Amino acid sequence: MAGTREDFLDTARAAGALLREPAVAAAWPEPSALPKLSVGGLAGHLAYQVLALPPLLSSPLPAEETVSLLGHYERVEWIGADLDDDVNVRIRHGGEDAAADGAAALADRFDAAVGDLAGRLPGVADRPVRLSLWGPWSLRLDDLLVTRMMELAVHSDDLAVSVGLPGPALPPGAVERVVGLLSRLAVRRHGPTAVLRALSRAERAPGTIAAF
């Protein structure tokens, strides 16, 4: 789906511009808006959403089952996990490790990965791909890109808030895909009535319809 890939790349470019903001580099070792994660660690986790992808495009087809987009979120360990559960500790350590060489080095790696993906994504079939950290399943490439788009959008906002900047503007197509995904996950978590009321009836809205 060409639109998905273009929206992903545009979202990644917006995240890349945020990574190069002087305010991000200046606050690198400071606490971020997310518990137990530095600004640098959050930037590293944000960058991982792109850095992990180039090797997948030339990897062998995975043997693991290919699941749907929502099926992926039924399987991930981090939804509902406590802050100090192993999965969240691994995520934080991965972000901090990615940030170890500093803001400029991370931004350079990120921009190089975006450039690589921009050149290769148009010619790649919508084939199954798998990130080994997930578990024993795979996703179609375009579904994977939607998951990464959501991560980029959410964590770009986290990073911007952490350093006192406005959240980066996202392309309209990315907004539709990310909000659509989060809405479906919110329905799964809270039920359709709660989401319907939250979006249409302030007087009957529940306290939250957060997707996670």
Automatic annotation (TrEMBL):
Pfam families: MDMPI_N (PF11716). InterPro entries: DinB/YfiT-like (IPR034660), MDMPI_metal-binding (IPR024344). One of its GO terms (molecular function) is isomerase activity. Coiled coil: none annotated. Residues 10-160 form the Mycothiol-dependent maleylpyruvate isomerase metal-binding domain. Keywords: Isomerase, Pyruvate. The keyword Nucleotide-binding does not apply. The keyword rRNA processing does not apply. This is Mycothiol maleylpyruvate isomerase-like protein. It comes from Prauserella shujinwangii.
